[in-house]
């Protein structure tokens, strides 16, 4: 499903080179739930952004469903992201001026679905996540746990095959965090491939496999 071959990410800071990812290789199977752990600054988010096509590596290949996405141009990359990847972020990244329903509709707008299709789909995903009675609320009118459920609904709106969650419980209390973990575990059961970054070892235990990153390298 996901094949990462020798990717490196190097930033030029003035005349210095900063190696943030150093020849990382990784295979993630279809339907696998993988947790990525490691110290702050070790390159976890950078790696997630490469998998999701939000950023490209300086060297190496990122192959998703047999396609090397590291060389896709902007427009094709956006299409790839919108169709195949659902992102969940620590800070939710919801659009504050839009309602929960409209936020969840966003990826469907980009995909060019009809108005009725979009509304029906967005509503059904929100209902599935226990948010059916909050669809008209704006992000500021929701609790943190509810915001994260809206952001999960948005990630799932286009029915992507891969879910990337970068510290999805980082801003939540333990009860809401546990609810998010239960949702992710449930989606694993439904066959989604999930990659999650976490600082919480209890959470990492929900995953099939734990990958440790340190100083831009995968520890073996
Ligand atoms: N645009 C950039 N230019 C230069 N350096 C960058 C840039 N983006 C990230 N970095 C550096 O890359 C390193 C890895 O960052 P990354 O965000 O991947 O870490 P992380 O493992 O996700 O950390 P955290 O657990 O704190 O979220 C950091 O040292 C950071 O300073
Ligand atoms: Mg990070």
Note down, in words, how this protein is organized.
The protein has 220 residues and is of the alpha/beta class. The protein is built from seven helices and ten strands. The strands form two sheets. The chain has a six-stranded mixed sheet, sandwiched between helices. It has a four-stranded antiparallel sheet with strand order 2-1-4-5. A hairpin with a 2-residue loop joins strand 4 and strand 5. Helix 5 runs parallel beside helix 6. The structure holds adenosine-5'-triphosphate (ATP) and magnesium ion.
Sequence-ordered SSE layout with sheet pairings:
Layout: E1 2-13, E2 16-28, E3 33-37, H1 44-51, E4 59-64, E5 67-68, H2 74-84, E6 85-89, H3 100-111, H4 115-128, H5 144-156, E7 162-166, H6 174-189, E8 193-197, H7 201-204, E9 209-214, E10 217-219
Parallel strand pairs: 3-8, 3-9, 6-7, 7-8
Antiparallel strand pairs: 1-2, 1-4, 4-5, 9-10
Helix pairs in contact: 3-4, 3-5, 5-6
The structure holds adenosine-5'-triphosphate (ATP) and magnesium ion.
The site of magnesium ion has 3 residues, from helix 1.
């Amino acid at each position: 499903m996901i094949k990462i071959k020798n990717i490196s990410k190097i930033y030029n800071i003035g005349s210095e080179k900063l190696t943030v990812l150093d020849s990382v290789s990784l295979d993630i199977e279809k339907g696998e739930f993988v947790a990525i752990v490691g110290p702050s600054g070790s390159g976890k988010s950078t790696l997630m952004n490469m998998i999701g096509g939000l950023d490209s590596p300086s060297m190496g290949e990122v192959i998703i469903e047999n396609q090397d996405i590291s060389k896709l141009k902007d427009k094709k990359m956006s299409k790839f992201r919108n169709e195949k990847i659902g992102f969940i972020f620590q800070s939710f990244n919801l659009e504050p001026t839009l309602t929960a329903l409209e936020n969840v509709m966003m990826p469907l707008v980009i995909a060019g679905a009809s108005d009725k299709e979009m509304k029906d789909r967005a509503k059904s995903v929100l209902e599935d996540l226990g948010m059916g009675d909050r669809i008209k609320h704006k992000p500021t009118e929701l609790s943190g746990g509810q915001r994260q459920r809206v952001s999960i609904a948005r990630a799932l709106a286009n029915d992507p095959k891969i879910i990337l969650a970068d510290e999805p419980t980082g801003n939540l209390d333990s009860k809401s965090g546990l609810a998010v973990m239960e949702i992710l575990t449930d989606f694993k059961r439904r066959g989604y491939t999930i990659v999650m970054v976490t600082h919480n070892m209890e959470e990492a235990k929900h995953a099939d496999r734990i990958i440790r990153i340190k100083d831009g390298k995968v520890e073996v």
